[in-house]
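Protocol step 4 of 6: structure prediction from sequence.
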Amino acid sequence: MTDLIIYEFPLNERIRTFIRLEQLFLQIEHFLQGDSIWESRAAVESLLDVITIFGRNDIRSELLKELERHQKALTRLARSQGIDTNKVHGMMDEIENLSHQLRETNGKFASHLAGHGLFKSIAQRSAIPGGTCSFDLPGYHHWLQQPEHHRKQDFKMWLAPFSVIRSTIGFALNTLRQSALPVEEIAMAGFYQQNLDQSLPFQLIRVGLDRHSPFYAEISGGKHRFTIRFMEPSMIDKAQQTSEDIPFQLTRCIF
């Protein structure tokens, strides 16, 4: 199988938060490629979600812990036979650089936006369906009517402090995703379950399914085991687990 849809399931809250932020930053990047006010609105909504996540989590501390864990793993790996030591040392240098940048940042991330009048007013009204209309938030309406380059310049300024966060999340997740090779498996009658070795730090489950398959993978689990059910979607009734045997690729990411 080469043309696959990848389904991911994080096995701990830290990786779950990193993937949420990764997706939100990708959404913002996508919407900023457009020039309409609707794309600016969508980018603002994604940025509000970023602000909310930072308000509930100490992301810098979590990233520093993750980098420290990677550093220890790479140090052990460097002692192994047949390892590309140049690549390992290059990754360790990148960890040192990212850690230094994170420690050098002053204040709390997203605080420059959490107290911003525009974002505070949008956040307050966003809980109301359709609550960010022009008559609700004339200041927001005024900003949306500014030229495209003006709005994009504001976004560039708002996003700049997150640069090291996004780089570190990208490094951590890319390293994790590449830490294991996929294996071919079969879900009998659409069901697959596997226990996890508690002595190994499994962090992420990845399932690759043929893009043309009519089914999708529903993954659940925790630190002891994980379960995959292949579901047949329905636009009318609740999705049902298929009774077919489903070949798929499984990657248990451990780093």
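Step 5 (inspection) to follow. The chain has a mean pLDDT of 92.
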